[in-house]
Amino acid sequence: MTEIESKIDEKEQKILHGIPMWPQEKINRFRETLLSWYDIEKRDLPWRKNNDPYRIWVSEIMLQQTRVDTVIPYYLNFMNNFPTIEALANAHEDVLLKAWEGLGYYSRVRNMQKAAQQIMEDYDGEMPKDPKEISKLKGIGPYTTGAIASMAFGLPEPAVDGNVMRVLSRLFEIDADIAKPGNRKIFEAIMRELIDPYKPGDFNQAFMDLGSSICTPKNYHPELSPVKEFNQSYQNGTWDKYPVKSKKKKAKPVYYVGAIIKNAEGAFLLEKRPENGLLANMWTFPLIEEESVTHEAEIKKGTLTGVTDENKTEQVIKNVMAELEAKYAVKPTLMEQPFDEVQHIFSHLKWFVAVYYGQVVKEEESMFIPENCYWVHPSDFDHYTFPGPQTKMWQSYLSKFNHN
DNA sequence: AAGGCGGGGCA
DNA sequence: TGCCCAGCCTT
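YS: structure for the whole thing
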């Protein structure tokens, strides 16, 4: 045993202080029980076809904060389009982003490509086996490191995600708040004790399957669990107290005017968002933050009211026109009222977008738009990656203006 | 340690 | 509606 490893063990012993660990005999029975259940009940998932590190890696990145059912079609499509680490490393970013459209957390795919390029340059095109090396790759944190090491390479590394923390907190009646990042190491320490050294990948995945099928956040029925005899909170009748998880802050409202501008050729003005931050490098109709738009829309008798403060309608139009001319160099004829309001909830923001429609009549007025903007015909929209709010604006436009 | 970063499914 | 989900990066 190296010096570094023994230090980690010492540290984790301290963390475990207060949480009584089971005797080895009980640990052995637990492993056997859980793995037997997994052998029978495990889900047939595309990335479980073999132990190819690339296949496992892609699935783990997609599954971050994303449900299995959502991921499957994206996964199949992605593996078809980018079947190897090399293909991923050499892909064009906009093609990559398009393959990720709708999955969310788009920096995941940009980081994954950077990691693929790291692997081509530093590791001869092969995913490294050493967890220390794996965790150096962009976008791969403690969880994904453990997942790849255990599932692809059979190493006894913990892979602690939300499922594992929930299951463990119920098994051992752990009061630590699982929303606090610092508490992850408690659960890692326990998993290092529990993990089956011969089938670490199956062991980790058994926790995932248990967490998503039986040991769920809601509608939890501990009496149905294959490991109920090991479940301390079930035996003590305290299971409804676990896990302890502090609440997240509410999404902050942000108000925009969305300007759907059509030119004489029937093309629409699209803008590429900045390369960093929210929805980086994705395409939307011009969005103008508008503080006067401080009301949620009410649709009464087919008419949209309440989107803007009363008496401020004219001011909103003036602001929008000024911004369109200054930033986008267009002077469209604009509807005096928005035709719809689109709402979109992110994890930390809630957008309210009052959608206006306008046309640029004269051809020469639409010639000098900025570099990050294009006039795009709807038949070419497929080549542009649209985030949720953009798709909602476009669908609303189609339903209002494109019928009959 | 806290906040930014998507989107959909569910009661 | 609010909460949840096979988290990671930046500050």
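YS: worth flagging: Confidence is low (pLDDT under 50) at residues 1-8, 294-304 of chain A.
IM: good catch. Also The two ends of chain A are 76 Å apart (CA to CA).
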